[in-house]
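Below is a filled-in request sheet from our internal design queue. Each sheet records the structural input a requester submitted and the sequence that came back. We keep these sheets so that new team members can see what a complete request looks like end to end.

REQUESTER: design group, bay 2
PRIORITY: normal
MODE: inverse folding
CHAIN LENGTH: 175
BACKBONE (tokenized):
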């Protein structure tokens, strides 16, 4: 998977990654789209609003000091979410064992969209267990887009609230 589109963000990674790491978290990704700079942070423990707000202020100070982005932009610091984009090899190795959705480049033979369990990932190949085709090997440089897929649990029965048991209302016998 080509990372040329993100190469201009490398200086920003270099500036803010130490700040994120020093706070005990991991810099997952940076996206610069139009007037928004999105900084995506992961942690061993769930990140709350207060922690993300503190990280946002800390990252803003570093960016203001070094001014690596010309012009105005809005800074957003958040988590990558349950359905996260897979862009770097580290993202793929971190998603091993999860369901992923892959769209390949138009030149690749066979299906362009593959959804399945990510079995392995290295610098050159991904192996996905596809329910339809079995094991599928995809060259990294033929991936156009990739993300994890969140699978919702079973739907509750109509008229019930999830997580609550219905009281047993069947009574037999007299008084």
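RETURNED SEQUENCE:
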């Amino acid at each position: 998977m080509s990372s040329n589109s993100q190469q201009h963000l490398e200086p920003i990674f270099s500036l803010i990654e130490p700040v994120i790491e020093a706070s005990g978290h991991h810099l997952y990704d940076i996206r610069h789209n139009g007037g928004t700079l999105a900084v995506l942070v992961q942690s061993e423990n769930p990140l709350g609003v207060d922690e993300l707000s503190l990280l946002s202020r800390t990252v803003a100070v570093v960016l203001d000091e070094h001014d690596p982005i010309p012009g105005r932009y809005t800074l957003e610091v958040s988590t990558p979410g349950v359905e996260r984009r897979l862009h770097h090899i580290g993202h793929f190795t971190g998603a091993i064992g999860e369901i992923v959705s892959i769209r390949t480049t138009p030149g690749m033979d066979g299906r362009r969209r593959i959804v399945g369990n990510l079995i392995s990932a290295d610098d050159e190949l991904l192996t996905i267990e596809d329910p339809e085709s079995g094991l599928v090997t995809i060259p990294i440089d033929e991936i156009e887009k990739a993300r994890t897929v969140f699978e919702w649990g079973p739907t509750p029965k109509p008229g019930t609230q999830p997580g609550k048991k219905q009281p047993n209302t069947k009574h037999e016998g007299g008084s």
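SHEET NOTES:
- The chain has two domains: 4-78, 89-148.
- Residues 166-171 have pLDDT under 50 and may be disordered.
FILED BY: M.R.
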